Every structure is written in structure tokens, then in C-alpha cells.
Amino acid sequence: MSGFDCDFLVVGGGSGGVRAARMAAQRGARVVLVEAAALGGTCVNVGCIPKKLYSQAAHFAQDFADAAGFGWDVPPPRFDWERLKRNRAQEIKRLNGVYEHLLRTAGVELLRGWATLCDAHTVQVATTDGARRWRARHILLATGGTPSVPHFTGREHVLTSDSMFDLDPFPRRLVVVGGGYIACEFASIFQGLGAQVTQLYRGEQILRGFDEEVRGFLAVEMRKHGLHLRVRTDVAQVRREADGSLAVALSSGETLAADAVLYATGRVPNVAGLGLGAAGVTLSPHGGIVVDADYRSSAPSVLAVGDVTARIQLTPVALAEAMVVVEQLFGSGERRMDYECIPTAVFTHPNVATVGLTEQQARERHGAVRVFRTDFLPLRNTLGGGTERVLMKLLVDAASDRVVGLHMVGPDAGEIVQGFAVAMKAGATKAVFDATIGIHPTAAEELVTMREPVPGGA
Ligand code: FAD
Ligand code: NDP
Fold first, then answer.
1. Which of 62, 146, 254, 302 is the most exposed place for a label (fewest CB within 10 A)?
2. Class of domain 350-448
3. Which of 52, 95, 123, 143 maximizes ligand 1 atoms within 8 Å of its Cβ, making it the mutation to test the pocket?
4. Is 178 in the pocket of ligand 1 (CB under 6 A)?
5. Which CATH class is domain 6-145+268-330?
6. pLDDT at 458 over 60
7. CB 146: neighbour CB atoms within 10 A?
């Protein structure tokens, strides 16, 4: 190893870092991983996993309400926020242990402390036992991101998603600011758990970047659940009142009373205190580490994956990028990441899931596009009495017949669209969808039984 303490030093034990460290160690590299906080990073501790658990908790409200139509008499349900928090914390602790076990059994040396680059091959690690410098042949930065809150009067009174999981007490009235993934998901979750939620979004419609029809459909369905969704609405300031509540003053002059205010206004890469300058690592205007197609930064021995590159902030993307890095450095060296057709879901009530292009993108890229869509009341709601509808939409390139976009709003949309993402990745045409036999009775079968394009859609 001539002059190096290890082959691969990974900074950050989140989605990307743990995957890269484990896989590199399994390929025989001597690997050190440095993590300053809990193993598993954002996804495990304050992201995907606790969020999904809370989303599932919130869904029970609908299940109890629907049960009567199916013959069940359920006593008025009572929600115990403290129990949910306790059980979630226990499960997350278990997962932290699983991650540690995985790393240790793979042979990764795990350091609990803060890492700072000294140069392009040297990392100083400050642990409770003191600081030590490590020389590494390759360094991977997988330090993730952190919530970003704009500057305004009363900023100190608002919360970010990081503190929502352990909120005490449960907020009776919650104001959520933002219209992206986190704002929409947390608004849905807390509404489902029994809070009165008001979601404020500065733009025309929530979930910018998603298919227009999906955005509008979701907004209607979220409002049906009783959520006060207000678009074209800006916050001027937030004040703490004498009784401890918060007053959210809007630019329109109106004031909303709240017990808690969540700002979900995007995330910024974790680069502060990393010593990037000393290693010659440059940042993009968005504050992310600039990398090439092989994830090398401007200092070639320093690589970066995941949220710290400020591109697509999704766990499976960080994992896939980590795999490419390991393959490049310690494997065959042949893999490249394909960013086309990355499926994604928003765990709102109802869920949204999508893969491929929006209708607008499809038209811009392909010109003539056939649009197939359906919206319907799912079978469960016939007896359950719920009014939530399902939307499904396919976008087909008229010239090649390839399905280039697939969108769904409805229960288990993520579960359903994951499978269809495989078909899309394989280049399935509408003819292949048509030749696929449905599974009856399911909502998903609609995706293979839509025959007539929307008139004027081509
Ligand atoms: P992270 O997982 O954030 O890990 C970075 C780690 O680096 C952290 O543990 C941090 O402590 C450590 N670190 C930082 N600096 C240093 C340093 N100098 N020294 C030592 N350690 C350091 N994605 C999905 O795909 N699906 C979802 O449902 C989903 N839900 C989400 C919900 C929320 C509320 C949030 C916030 C995010 C969600 N995401 C979701 C996004 C997903 O969590 C991130 O994309 C993913 O965790 C990024 O992984 P990463 O490896 O880049 O960074
Ligand atoms: P997003 O970038 O998705 O959304 C940020 C929202 O905040 C947008 O609606 C944006 O408005 C708004 N906003 C930004 N700045 C301001 C401001 N100054 N004042 C008012 N509103 C503002 O970020 P999130 O924080 O929701 O999530 C970060 C990322 O984490 C996501 O993009 C996603 O990649 C990942 N994530 C994934 C999840 C999943 O896979 N299910 C779940 C949660 C997070 P505008 O649209 O006008 O810019």
C-alpha cells in the first residue's frame, strides 16, 4: 500500500458511504469509514425510514374510517404519539446496529468522529480519543445534506424535518412551508395523525417538476383529506405569542395561529468544515461537490456520491453511485450510472409515483405523444365510503410506440410503479403493455388495459 494507511477512506456512514465501504471491503480493499453521528445517515435516522413508518401510522386513520362499511365496528380510535415515537426510536436503534454489524463483518474499520481533509490523500479524524491523520489512496465523500431554511424574522421559531420525528408535544395546529417532497409528505402525515395542517406554497402548484396533471390531482386529493393547502402564499414573519403558540404572518396581511411551523424548503450539501479547499475540491454554484461521470472531484483522488453532489437526492441513487465508484476503483472498472428513468415516489396521502418523462417533457423530447389516462374510485372505496380517487397516466412516443412516462396517484403507487419501472428500463412499447395480461381485480391492471388515447393527445 506504499505510504497509505488504507486504500479507501469513506467520510459519511449514510446510504452512499456504508454501501461503498462494505462493497469495497468485500472486494479486498482496506477500508476506513468515518461517521460523526448515527450510522445509516439521513435515510435511516431522519429520512426515508422513520418518515415511511409515520406515513404508515397516519394511514390507519383511513383504515379505521373505512372499516365500518366492511362490517367492522371499531371503537373510536385513540392515537398515542408517545408510543409511536418510542417504537420508531427502538426500530431505528436496531437498524443502526444492523449497519454497524454489516460494516464490521465486511472488515471495515469504523471511526466515530469528524473528518476533515488536509490534502487530497490525507484526512484528519477527530474522535473522543483524540485526532489522527489517515493517508488514503482514494477518499470518498458521502457526507449528505442538511435542511436549509431561508432568512426571515422569526426563523428561530421554525422547525425542520430533522426535529419532526420527536416533536413534543404533538402539534394540534401545524403550518408546513414548502411544496416539495418533504413538505407534502409531512403535511399528509401530520394531517393523518390528527393535526390540523395548513401547507403554504409560494408557487402555482405543489411538486414542481412532476407531471402537471399529477400535481393538480394530488392537490385535490390532499384537500379532500381536510388539509388546508394554500398556493401562491408567502410567509412574512413568525412570532412567538405570550401563550407559547406561534403567529405566522403572511405577506397578504393575514395571520395563522400554529403550535409548530415546519420549513421544508430544500436541503444543502454538507460541506462545511470538511476542508475541501485544502484538498483542491471545487463546488458548484449550488454548493455541491462537482464530480465527473466517474464521481471524481477536481482532486482526482477525492470522489463524491449522493446528496453532497447536490444532484438527485434519493437513497437508491446514492447507493447506485456508490456501487459504480467501487466497481471503478476495486472491480472491473466498467460501470457507469444511467440517470434515465429513475423511478420515484412521494409518500403523500394518496401516494404519488412516477417513472420517465412528464407530459410536457415527453412533448418537448418526442413531439407527437399519445396520452393514455384514467381516474377512478378504487374498489375499496365502494364499501369503505372514501372519496379518494386514483389517477394513472401513460405517455407514449407516437413514432416508436415506447412508453416514455408512467405516473400514478393512489394507494401503493410506489409499490406498483417499481415493477413498471423495470419494463420502462427495458424499453417496453405500448404494444407490450397491451399484450400483458392484467391481474384482476387490482388497480394496477388499469396500466395494461388503457386502450384509447386521450383525444387530441397525439
Ligand atoms: P446521508 O445519508 O445524509 O449520510 C451522510 C452522513 O455523513 C451522515 O450520517 C453525516 O453524519 C455524515 N457526515 C457528514 N459530514 C461528516 C464529516 N465531516 N465527518 C464524518 N461524518 C460526516 N430518499 C428516498 O429515496 N426515499 C425516501 O422516501 C426519502 N425520504 C426522505 C425523507 C426525508 C425527511 C429526508 C430528509 C430525505 C429523504 N430521502 C429519501 C433522501 C435520502 O435520505 C437521501 O438522498 C440519502 O440519505 C442520501 O444519502 P447520502 O449517503 O448522500 O447521505
Ligand atoms: P425540494 O427541493 O423537493 O422542495 C423544496 C420546496 O421548498 C419547493 O417547493 C420550493 O419551492 C420551496 N422553497 C425553496 N426555497 C424557498 C423559500 N425561500 N421560501 C419558500 N419556499 C421555498 O426539497 P425538500 O426539502 O422537500 O426535500 C429535499 C430532497 O430530499 C428532495 O428533493 C428529494 O430528492 C429528497 N426526498 C425524497 C423523498 C422521497 O423519495 N419520497 C422524500 C423526502 C425528501 P419551488 O418549487 O418554488 O422552488
1. 254
2. alpha beta
3. 143
4. no
5. alpha beta
6. no
7. 16
